[in-house]
């Protein structure tokens, strides 16, 4: 099993443990996930349709649903390594890692959502493979987010520097409305720097940029840096 696959299953195990300890009065608590309380978040994670019969929408069923989703993920990971997958695009190691990194991003953010809602201590700057893979996946999309988030027809550069579970320092060069990674340079002083956890959570719509600045996890400068932290989001 690859480190990325192990990180995915570790996140599922964390979510199973958190879900199993949700108390009767905690299902209606709000979470950092937009428009989702604990019940709605776990329903989403478990893949349970809210329109199903009420007997399938009970806390017991939802806990079982998360466990079943974890088992399904393990089976999917095994299938990616299977003979049929090896004869198709799914057998490409780069494709496999991208799929698993996407799962890391989704699960890591939702683990943060659930832990925060339940008042469980959570370290958004954990030095883990899960956060590293989640951030690496998000960095693949960062040039597009810079180009879209800057909201300007002018060409320009934004330097992105992260340090922690991922060490990254490069510049996104926006040309003709498209963003591409290039070697780091200070340019005109348009920068975004911070920790991988704050970067992932900000771009996932969790927390105002000023909050992450106040706790020392994010900094920015220049008009394009400001536009990025205010407008660039993976969803929306």
Can you describe what's shown?
53% of the residues lie in helices and 12% in strands. 38% of the residues are buried. The chain is built from 9 helices and 5 strands. The longest helix is centred in the middle third of the chain and has 25 residues, at 93-117. With 236 residues, it is an alpha+beta fold. The model is unreliable at 49-55 (pLDDT under 50). It has a 5-stranded mixed sheet with strand order 3-2-1-4-5. The protein folds into 2 domains: 3-117, no CATH class; 129-231, Nonspecific Lipid-transfer Protein, Chain A (2-Layer Sandwich).
Topology:
Blueprint: H1 3-20, H2 38-46, H3 59-80, H4 83-86, H5 93-117, H6 129-150, E1 156-162, E2 168-175, E3 178-182, E4 191-194, H7 196-203, H8 209-214, E5 218-221, H9 222-231
Parallel strand pairs: 1-4
Antiparallel strand pairs: 1-2, 2-3, 4-5
Counting helices, strands and paired strands, the structural category is alpha+beta
Count of the separate structural domains: 2
User: Count of DSSP helices?
Assistant: 9
Low-confidence stretches: 49-55
List the secondary-structure elements in sequence, H or E: HHHHHHEEEEHHEH
How far is it from the N-terminal to the C-terminal residue, by CA?
A: 34 Å
Mean pLDDT: 87
Beta-strand content:
5-15%
Q: Could you give a short account of the major beta sheet?
A: 5 strands, mixed
Tell me roughly what share of residues is in helical segments: 40-55%
Shape field: globular
Tell me the radius of gyration. Answer: 19 Å
Beta strand count: 5
């Amino acid at each position: 099993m690859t480190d990325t696959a192990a990180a995915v299953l570790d996140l599922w195990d964390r979510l199973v443990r958190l879900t199993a300890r949700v108390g009767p009065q905690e299902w209606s608590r709000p979470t950092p996930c937009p428009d989702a309380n604990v019940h709605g978040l776990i329903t989403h994670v478990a893949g349970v349709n809210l329109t199903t019969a009420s007997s399938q929408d009970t806390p017991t069923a939802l806990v079982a649903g998360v466990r079943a989703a974890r088992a399904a993920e393990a089976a999917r990971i095994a299938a990616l390594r299977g003979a049929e997958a090896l004869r198709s695009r799914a057998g490409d190691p780069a494709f496999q890692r991208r799929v698993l990194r996407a799962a890391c991003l989704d699960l890591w953010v939702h683990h943060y959502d659930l832990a925060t809602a339940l008042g469980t201590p959570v370290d958004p700057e954990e030095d883990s493979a899960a956060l590293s893979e989640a951030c690496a996946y998000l960095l693949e999309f960062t040039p597009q987010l810079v180009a879209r988030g800057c909201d300007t027809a002018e060409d320009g550069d934004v330097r992105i520097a992260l340090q922690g579970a991922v060490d990254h320092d490069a510049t996104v060069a926006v040309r003709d409305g498209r963003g591409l990674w290039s070697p780091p340079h200070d340019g005109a002083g348009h920068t975004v720097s911070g920790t991988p956890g704050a970067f992932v959570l900000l771009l996932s719509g969790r927390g105002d940029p000023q909050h992450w600045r106040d706790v020392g996890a994010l900094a920015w400068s220049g008009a394009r840096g400001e536009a990025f932290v205010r407008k660039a989001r993976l969803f929306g």
